[in-house]
Design a protein that fits this description.
Radius of gyration: 19 Å
CATH topology of the domain at 83-167: Rossmann fold
Order of helices and strands: EEEHEEHEHHHHEHEHEEHH
Helix content: 25-40%
Bound molecules: adenosine-5'-triphosphate, magnesium ion
Strand content: 15-25%
């Protein structure tokens, strides 16, 4: 089995703070992994490291079997075009249409000039393809709507459509279901995992919601204070260990007060 991601003793620091602290893990092509952990546990930092936006301060990162530490800007850009990141706040442009936002998904694979032209007048073939993707994610009637006219759940679907238009080999989604009701959250997570199976891309999703992680992902990685606390199938992680992930330590309780 080939690996999408391989981290060996990776640390990412912000000054004195290790946001990711000595993490080693391997994620195979086509795997579906949920990254769970409380606020500040390092989920976003880890996803940005997987996406090669952020290089590690220690350790090595390999993506699709290639060590990226010696990569230049051009090689990194090429690598990133194979991975779609759905950022925590989706990163959509509110005063632009759905089609314009989705077409930007392929920006990394096209020249700057072509990307600019795409934004002004998307090519007919792109519009057809985007329409088909929007159909798959269930919002085809919103093709020409502005982002700021959509609901939270619809915006999540646009962000997923933009990732799909990139034709990625891996999708990283950072808390894609915050700010929607539980039913919508479940639909979105189901859509992402169904798509991963259907299109065979690796999927890594950070989630606060343990129930959704357990229901839809065959592998859960628990993060706390930048460290991996468990990495296993949901059935083999004791309930107490999962709950403990979100419990405040005495020290943290004092800080909260
Ligand atoms: N740009 C930054 N500068 C300084 N510290 C940062 C920066 N980004 C993150 N951190 C710190 O690194 C740690 C991990 O942050 P990160 O955003 O990765 O956590 P998270 O698990 O994604 O949290 P959340 O669930 O709230 O999104 C936190 O303690 C945070 O304060
Ligand atoms: Mg985060």
């Amino acid at each position: 089995m080939s690996l999408t991601f391989q981290l060996e003793r990776v640390s990412c620091r912000f000054g004195d703070l290790a946001a990711v602290d000595d993490v080693s893990l391997e994620i195979e092509n086509g795997e579906r992994v949920a990254l769970i952990g409380p606020s500040g546990s390092g989920k976003t930092t880890l996803l940005r490291t997987l996406n090669t936006i952020r290089g590690p301060d220690a350790g090595t990162v390999s993506v699709f079997g290639e060590k990226i530490d010696s990569f230049g800007a051009k090689q990194l850009r090429k690598m990133r075009s194979r991975i779609a990141l759905i950022p925590q706040h989706l990163g959509l442009v509110p005063n632009m249409s759905v089609v314009q936002n989705v077409v930007a998904g392929r920006g990394g694979k096209r020249s700057t000039l072509r990307s600019l032209r795409d934004l002004i007048v998307p090519a007919k073939s792109d519009v057809r393809e985007i329409h088909a993707i929007l159909e798959r994610v269930g919002i085809e009637e919103k093709l020409y709507n502005r982002i700021d006219q959509l609901s939270g759940g619809q915006k999540q679907r646009v962000a997923i459509a933009r990732a799909l238009f990139q034709k990625p080999e891996a999708i990283l989604a950072d808390e894609p279901v915050s700010a929607v009701d539980p039913a919508r959250a479940r639909d979105t997570v189901k859509l992402l995992t169904d798509l991963s199976l259907e299109k065979n891309f690796t999927l890594v999703v950070s989630l606060h919601n343990l129930e959704l992680a357990r229901e839809f992902f065959p592998r859960l990685i628990g993060l706390r204070g930048g460290r991996v606390t468990f990495d296993a199938a949901p059935d083999s992680i004791p309930e107490s260990e999962m709950k403990a992930l979100f419990e405040l330590t005495a020290e943290e309780l004092v800080k909260e007060v």
